[in-house]
Amino acid sequence: MEIRTVRYDHPDAVALDALVQQEYVRRYGDGDITPLDPEMFAPPHGTYLIAYDGARPLATGGWRRQEDTAEGYAPGDAEIKRMFVVAEARGRGLARRILAALEADARAAGRSRMVLETGTEQPEALELYASSGYALVERKFGLYRTYDDSRCMVKSLVAAD
Asked: What phi and psi values does residue 134 have, to the nearest 5 degrees?
């Protein structure tokens, strides 16, 4: 398995994003309407990763710079987007590897905090993030911050003094 940096509009990223949207529809009844643009994931503003088994894309995830305090973000935030593993590759630690690579990249880019929004219908995501050091926060952020089933989590990328 190899993790590669790709553009968010790479054909494999587009195909995996379509599968993510299908998963959201299955779980929530609708896709994610968060406006995303490939430039949001282009360094130094972020990065987008795909895990491959040979030529086959199996997992994806990205981070983008987020500092819009009106939407609840803080200066220095890196927001995780589009974490996803195809059904037949789940349980192999791919999401955890993508997550670690995203954290390392965001830290190297000078970001101070990793943030994400997920939902109650994604218990495996909530479990992954909690076991990776993310904490739920009451002051939610992002497009879905007013939704009851939204859960926002954060993790510091700065070493404690």
From this structure: -85, 145
Q: What is the pLDDT of residue 57?
A: 98
Q: In the structure, what pLDDT confidence band is assigned to residue 159 with cuts at 50, 70 and 90?
A: confident
Rg (CA), the chain: 15
The CA distance from 37 to 33, in Å, is 12
pLDDT of residue 54: 96
d(CA 40, CA 93): 26
Q: Choose between 139 and 61: higher pLDDT.
A: 61
Residue-wise burial string across 145-155, b where 16 or more C-beta atoms lie within 10 A, e elsewhere: eeeeebbbbbb
Query: In which band, very low, low, confident or very high, does the pLDDT at 38 lie, cut at 50, 70 and 90?
Result: very high
3-class state of residue 16 by DSSP: helix
Phi, psi for residue 121 in degrees, rounded to 5:
-85, 10
CA distance 140 to 129: 16
The DSSP string of 88-156 is GGTTSSHHHHHHHHHHHHHHHTT--EEEEEEETT-HHHHHHHHHTT-EE-SS--STTTT-TTEEEEEEE
